[in-house]
Each structure stands twice: as C-alpha cells, then as structure tokens.
Amino acid sequence: MLCLGIESTAHTFGAGIVSSEGKILANAKDSYSSATGMIPKEVAKHHEQVKEQILADTLKQANITLKNIDIISYSHGPGLSPCLLVGKVFAEKLAKENNKPLIGVNHCVAHLTIGTLTTQTKDPVYLYVSGVNTQLLVASHGRFRILGETLDIGLGNALDKFGRKAGLGFPAGPKIEQEAKAGKYIELPYAVKGMDVSFSGIITAAERKLDKNSIKDICYSLQETCFAMITEVSERALAHTKKQELILIGGVAANKKLIKMLTLMCAERSVRFAAVPTAYSGDQGVMIAWQGILEYTNGRKTPADIHPYQRTDEIDINW
Ligand code: AMP
Ligand code: MG
Questions:
Q1: Which pLDDT does position 192 carry in this prediction?
Q2: 315 lines ligand 1 (CB under 6 A)
Q3: What residues have a C-beta under 5 A from ligand 2, the ion?
Q4: Which residue segments constitute the domains of the chain, with CATH numbers given?
Q5: In the prediction, which pLDDT does 170 show?
Q6: Region 112-129: what's the mean pLDDT?
Q7: Does 173 sit in the ligand 1 pocket, CB within 6 Å?
Q8: Would the CB of 78 count as within 6 Å of ligand 1?
Q9: What does the mean pLDDT of the chain come to?
C-alpha cells in the first residue's frame, strides 16, 4: 500500500510517499523564507505557487503516477489556518479526482512517528523541538503524554525571533549554529520550571546584549543556555520514566551542538540516543504519509477539516 502525504502547516509545502512497510519512496518540499519572518497569507501564497511542482517532483522521485497511490493524507493541524487550508483543499481535490481515500493527521504526532520509524526505536522519550513546539513526551495509556513543554514560545521560534532582531534572516537556527562556532560564553538567564522551560525572557536578554557583545558570543551563549535547559529536562524525564531510549525530532534536531549535548547526557546514563535524520527533522510530507498509513490501515476515518490548535495529546494511538 502506498500513501501520498501532503504537508502545509507552516513555512514548508511538502509531499512524500511511503509504503505500508515503512519504505520511503519520495520526499520533495519547498520552504518559504524571508528577511523578516512568516506572514501567514504570504506563506499560503507560496504554498499555492509550489504545490503542483512539488507533487510532480514527488511522483517522479517514486517513479509512479497518482493511479499507483492507495491513500492520500494531509496535515490537518496544528498550524497557520491559511496554510493548512492550502494543503487540505489540494489533498481533497486529488483524492476526489483520483477516487482515493483521504485522511487528515496531526502534524506533531507525525513528527514523533517518523522519529521512531527512522531511528528504529520502540518506546523512547521524545524530545520534540521545532519552530512552534518544544515538548517532552512518552506514549502511555493510548496517547502521547506531555511530560514537559515550553511555557511560552517554541525553541525554533525563539531562535528565529532573536535572528530577526540580529539581522540573520529567517529561519535563523542554522545561522545561529554557524555563528556560535566561534563564540564564547556570556551569561544569560536560565529558565527551567520543573519539567517545563521558558525561552522568551532569554531571547529578550540576548537581544539587549546586541549592541555590547559580539553576535558570535551571543549565539554561542543562546545555544549553550537553551540546549542545557532541554537536556536537563530530558534527563529528568529519563530518570522518572526509566525509558532506555531518547530521540530528538523536529527542525531543531538538525543542530549538531544539541545532538552532542544529548549524546553525552545519554551516554552517561547508558541510554540509547538517536536524532532523526536531517531529511526528516524539519517539516516534510514523508511523515504525513507514514502517519496516514498508520492511522488509515488501523481503521481511522477523519472528516476533511482543519484543526489549527490541535494538541499532540488529543490523538488516540490506534496503531
Ligand atoms: P520545523 O517547524 O520542525 O520545520 O522546524 C523549523 C525550525 O527549526 C526553525 O525555527 C529553524 O530555525 C529551526 N532550525 C532548523 N535548523 C536548525 C539548526 N541547525 N539549529 C537550530 N535550529 C534549527
Ligand atoms: Mg513541524
């Protein structure tokens, strides 16, 4: 069975094709970028412009046509409404025209399940760090349970927000990673509250240092501080749950320094650590296709809708 997955929740329009055995056949995407940030209507316009080409690229990579597809899935939320609508309307049209079943899936849950598929883990603690989301989760009693999360903004958005002030462009995460390589530590606030974290105060403090300190030193210190915070709560999650695996997923999982810190912490606890491969860390259609396979083959049906605020822990695990 083959599923075509459509992703459009935020900056990225993507399509991917996955088989029911978990084989990834295609992954094509195009991401909106700008000097300032995301304006939802502008991002939706980007998605409208690239959707047909991305679909064509995906089918070409897999060397198939839409006739060979068995299921079509799309991200029904959470995300920016104008962007979600582009994906939904496109997926719905493709399903109708080609007489295929359509299923809407949760974008965050898809990040988690592409994580276990591509890292060959079974029952990990999930550290999910993307633009909007920063959550620590485990699967328990039929749902993904959130053990800790950001109390304000996600880490990716926090880095992007600083980057906007510092003139690094959007997305800023990869640029901050580069700048940080030649930086040294300067003090920033450290905000862990139990199992939760908070980034907005740190970003304000970092922005205030822009006229006195070098950008390299601020970037280095931002990474050290924010990554130490999420490493601390991840370690506590492992200690409490006694789970033997930690996986890192979401766009920030591309960061080598974060991977290094988590690798060290897990080695000290004799826990297996894996980061999702970079091709599947940020938003893409592959994870939506795999989530479509998981839910559809286990009998789930969803109305063709969008859910801009749907949380990770609202979805029953039916697979
Ligand atoms: P997602 O929403 O999962 O697609 O993730 C996008 C976020 O990941 C953006 O906020 C980026 O700034 C961030 N990001 C991407 N690459 C890196 C990196 N190398 N280091 C830190 N953050 C990154
Ligand atoms: Mg995402």
A1: 98
A2: no
A3: 130, 283
A4: 2-111+280-314 (3.30.420.40), 115-278 (3.30.420.40)
A5: 83
A6: 98
A7: yes
A8: no
A9: 97
At residue 169, the pLDDT reads: 87
**Residue 196 Cβ < 6 Å to ligand 1:** no
d(CA 157, CA 214): 21
List the residue whose alpha carbon is closest to atom 21 of ligand 1: 173
User: In angstroms, rounded to a whole number, what is the distance separating the alpha carbons of residues 296 and 314?
Assistant: 17
Q: State if residue 40 touches ligand 1 by the CB under 6 angstroms criterion.
A: no
- Cis amide prior to 171 (ω within 30 degrees): yes
Residue corresponding to tokens 């070098």: 214
Cα maximum dimension of the chain: 61
> Is the CB of 180 within 6 Å of ligand 1?
no
DSSP summary character for residue 153: S
Distance 282 CA to ligand 2 centre (A): 6
pLDDT tens, 162-176? 999 999 988 899 999
Q: Is there an atom of ligand 1 within 6 Å of 37 CB? A: no
Q: How many residues make up the chain in this entry?
A: 319
pLDDT tens digits for range 201-223: 999 999 999 999 999 999 999 99
Averaged pLDDT for residues 82-108: 98
Candidates 11, 159, 281: which one to mutate for ligand 1, based on the most atoms within 8 Å of Cβ?
A: 159
Residue 200 burial (10 A CB sphere; 0-12, 13-18, 19+): middle
Which residues, other chains included, contact 303 with Cβ-Cβ below 8 Å and sequence gap of 6+? 104
Helix (H, G, I), strand (E, B) or coil at 94: helix
Sole residue written with tokens 């906007």: 164
Which atom of ligand 1 is found nearest the CA of 11?
4
CB 104 within 8 A of CB 110: no
Q: Which two tokens stand for residue 108?
A: 């965050």
